[in-house]
Structures are given as structure tokens and as C-alpha cells.
Automatic annotation (TrEMBL), chains A, B:
Database matches in InterPro entries: Aminoacid_DH-like_N_sf, NAD(P)-bd_dom_sf, THF_DH/CycHdrlase, THF_DH/CycHdrlase_cat_dom, THF_DH/CycHdrlase_CS, THF_DH/CycHdrlase_NAD-bd_dom
Any GO BP: methionine biosynthetic process
Subunit structure: Homodimer.
Name by which UniProt lists this protein: Bifunctional protein FolD
Stored PROSITE patterns: THF_DHG_CYH_2 (PS00767)
UniProt keyword NADP present: yes
Organism (species): Haloferula rosea
One Gene Ontology molecular-function label: methenyltetrahydrofolate cyclohydrolase activity
Length: 290, 290
């Protein structure tokens, strides 16, 4: 019998904390500001950017949406980033991923002032995460997963945590967060090359799936009573849906829910946390930059 | 029946490669240079520094030993670092650890030009390791462990690797190296808070002990046929020795050697690799800086 971890409810609680912190910042004379840069016309990116800007508005965070045409050059984009780095009204800068193919995304991330890199992808923030320096920005998705574990009352100290996936967006930062002092999990990072992935996962007290394969994690991968965090968001063809597809995670939800003591659904689990943690990072930056 | 991994022999082979590369650099008009800064009079540090300088001499690497008194201020030390950063004859800079207590070691590391940080402790090199960027410097001890695995012909892809210890000097970088693309191990980082450490270690195809507890790893922690890398160097009181102690690793060598397919001794295992990899990093820097 499993307890559903309600990402929408936890995200709402995080956003309430943010609202309070925005008031506190404003009382100190600081209006937090987030700039979101979108290059090109990817429809999914437009939805994400719209949602971020709307959430800023809800919370009283100043936001600036900068939409640039697909043919924007690397140099032009770097100039926009440099201007935002220098702008005291802006505390967080986010360049929506993925940019058009001719843009060197890594170079753009490196060009960000790391103190405004609220996505947590700049090398300086990667290092701070590894070095357990709390002044850095933690990438929003793994930060959201950690918050869900906390809200679900999961004991991490000494627990066996297994992370499937080793990306710098989720897998590696998640592993670093789980092994950090004070969290103290025993962390295994598994991936597509791992032998006996099912057997490795079956040892997990905490199982985090961030691999991008629809419903890969089956019930017999899950230990009785484990906590399952599903980071995957995959489109699967579904003729019964009007739009022709449905969204599914990396976990076969129904069957795994039978065994887990707690599990995140998709949608409504990790997804809503990402924007909430982005807001939190923006406020952290506003507080730090003052 | 286990095969002893001979760190002295592998280190000698690495140093031979270095000798060739020094000649090649000199043919290109580059004399590689390493500066070693020692603050205070710690006898062990004096031995390490002497050994590094001597190895440079053996290979034809220019070295500069800078000995500063214990009472050197942070500001004076940072000035020395700044001068070395700016000195084109110097490609690698190493400030011997530990400095006297009044020195902020982290600030000194951050003051190094990351392109000359041949210890691999600067945040920029930490990030490059996590991001799998080969232009960064990998800390010498875990780099040495990886080379030992390679020379011993150990298959890492899909192997279960367990690292005991989560320091930024050994544990975390070792984990990142083992999980990197092309190495492809399934990596578990365990530590003093881990539950059933023995059981976790028994699952390891590759077991790396970097915890600093003499002979903690016993035979029943080791799977039959596992590869055991012992990073520990501990002093244990021993009245039968003239100096009153003996050196021992984190692994109970004799009994674990019965079960391992390959194992590093202490001394003569990982230890000799550290200086060899420092030389390799210095030459990488000389090549990159040109």
C-alpha cells in the first residue's frame, strides 16, 4: 500500500514560502528579478517560459521575458547575457534549453555570472555542489526531488539510495545531494551500462529514476516499502487521447505503487517542483546579491 | 589466489612516459616547470616536497621549491601564489597540505590559476571532472587508482564499483571517474554512516577503500575474485619496529589477498602513483599552456 507523494501540494507549499520571502526581501528594499531568455520558437519551450514568467507574477517577482529569433547569433546571445549579468534588477538568469543547434549552449552557460545562474549549471555551481558549499545553486529538478523526500518524511541517513541515470541535469547532482554530509545516504549511480539493473534497484530504500525510458522500472525492480521518485517525463503514443499521446514516467506507476511505501506520480510529482525550486533559487540569489 | 598490483612498477612506467613527454615538450621549446610551496616545518610535508622536487629533477622538469616560515600570513602566501600564476616558467603549482592552522587553505586553492592547479582541487577542476571535460586536472590519488585498474586489465564497464569514503580528495573524484562515460562502472559511494557496510562491499567487483581506518576491510567484506584498491595509509603502533609504528592500509591485506583476484599492497600500491600522476598533470599543463 503506497502513499502518493503529491508534488503539486508540496510545490504549492514551496511557493507559499517564496511569497513570504518575497515580502521579506521587499521590506529590505530588494525586488527579486528573474530574466528568462528564449531563442527560437520551440512550442514546448514557449510553454515552459510562459509558466515561469506567470509564476514570477503570482509571487511578486519581477520577470523579464526576452524572446530572440531563431537566427540569433552566438555573439548576440552572449551580449544579451552580459547585459543581464550587469543589470542590478536581475538576480536570476535562465536561458531556456534547448537553444537552436547553431548555439553553443555550454559556452552560454559559462558566460552567465555564476551568482545569477539559478539553473545551477555553471561550472562554479557544479563545483559548489560537489564541495557541499550552500552558497551555490542546486539544479532545480534534483533540488525538488530532495524536497519531496523531506516532505514525505523519508529517512535518508544510512539508507541505500539508487539513482538511475548519470546526467549533469539530474543523475549526478542527485547523487551528490544524497551523499552529502547531513543527508548521509549510501548512493549508487546506475545507468544503461549497468549489469543487473533490476537487482541493483531491488536493493534500494530510495529509488530515483532519471533515465528517460517510459515505464522501465517494473514492480519486480522495487523493494517492498521502498520510496520511488520518478523524474522521467516521456511521451507515449496513445490513440485514445485527443492529442495522440500520454505522458508517462520512467516507472510503471500502477504496479510499482503496490510495493512502494511512497511514490511520485507523473504528472503531478517531480514536475511541479522544478519551477518552485527555480523561484527559490531566484530568491536565494536576490538575498545573496542584496 | 590474488595478483598483487605493483604500484611501484606502474609508477615507474608512468614516469618513463613522462620522461618521453618531457623530451617532446623540450623539442617544442617548452621546459615544463613545477613550483612546490611549503609553509612551515611539518616533517612529513618536508619529505613529500623533497620527493616531488627530486622526481622533477630525475625527469628533466624544472622545479622551484619555495619554503616559507610557519608565521607566513595568508596575504603573503596569496602574493606568492599570484606571482607563480603570472610566471611563464611555471606550469604547475602545488601548495603542500596541510598548511599551518592560521592559513585558509580553501582560499589558497581558489587563488591558484586553475590552469596550473595540478593537484586538481580548484573548483574549476572539480567541475571539469564532474562534467567529464578532459582539459581539467584530476586529483593525483584517484587518477593513480584509475591507472592501476587499467594496468591490471580490470574491466570496468558494467562492473559494480564500491568506493568507501566521500572526501573531495579521493572518494568523490574516484566515484565520478568510475561512472564517467567510457569507464561505465555502476558506482556506490559508501561511508561511515552506511548501514551494512560489509554487505555493500561484498557486492563489489571493484572495491576502493579510502576511509583512513587501519585494516577496516576484512576478508568477509570481499567478494571472491574482486579487485581491491587500498588508498589508506595509516600509522599503527608497533613496538617490534625501530620507529615504533608500521604503515598499514584500510584493508586487512593478508586475509583479503586470499579472496581478491587483484589487490594493491600498502606501501607500494597507490602511494607511488600519486607523485607519478602529479608529474603527468604538470606535463599536461605544460602542453596546454604551451
Amino acid at each position: 500500500m503506497s502513499k502518493v507523494i503529491d508534488g503539486k501540494a508540496v510545490a504549492a507549499a514551496v511557493l507559499e514560502e517564496c511569497r513570504t520571502e518575497v515580502e521579506s526581501l521587499k521590506a529590505d528594499g530588494i525586488t527579486p528579478g528573474l530574466a528568462v531568455v528564449l531563442v527560437g520558437e520551440d512550442p514546448a519551450s514557449q510553454v515552459y517560459v510562459g509558466s515561469k514568467v506567470r509564476t514570477c507574477g503570482d509571487l511578486g517577482i519581477y520577470s523579464r521575458k526576452i524572446e530572440l529569433p531563431t537566427e540569433t547569433t552566438q555573439e548576440e546571445l552572449l551580449k544579451v547575457v552580459a547585459d543581464l549579468n550587469a543589470d542590478p534588477a536581475i538576480h536570476g538568469i535562465l536561458v531556456q534549453s534547448p537553444p537552436p543547434k547553431h548555439i553553443d549552449e555550454e559556452a552560454v552557460v559559462r558566460a552567465l555570472d555564476p551568482r545569477k545562474d539559478v539553473d545551477g549549471f555553471h561550472p562554479e555551481n557544479v563545483a559548489k555542489l560537489a564541495l557541499e558549499d550552500p552558497t551555490g545553486f542546486v539544479p532545480c529538478t534534483p533540488a525538488g526531488c530532495m524536497r519531496l523526500l523531506k516532505e514525505a518524511g523519508v529517512e535518508t541517513s544510512g539508507a541505500n539510495a539508487v539513482v538511475i541515470g548519470r546526467s549533469m541535469i539530474v543523475g549526478k547532482p542527485m547523487a551528490l545531494l544524497l551523499m552529502a554530509r547531513g543527508v548521509d545516504a549510501t548512493v549508487t549511480v546506475a545507468h544503461s551500462r549497468s549489469k543487473d539493473l533490476a537487482g541493483i534497484c531491488r536493493e534500494a530504500d530510495i529509488l530515483v529514476a532519471a533515465v528517460g525510458r517510459p515505464e522501465m522500472v517494473k514492480a519486480d525492480w522495487v523493494k517492498e516499502g521502498a520510496v520511488v521518485i520518478d523524474v522521467g517525463i516521456n511521451r507515449v503514443d496513445d490513440a485514445s487521447k485527443k492529442r495522440g499521446y500520454r505522458l508517462t514516467g520512467d516507472v510503471a506507476y500502477e504496479e510499482c505503487a503496490e510495493k512502494a511505501s511512497a511514490i511520485t506520480p507523473v504528472p503531478g510529482g517531480v514536475g511541479p517542483m522544478t519551477i518552485a525550486m527555480l523561484m527559490k533559487n531566484t530568491l536565494q540569489s536576490a538575498r545573496q546579491l542584496g
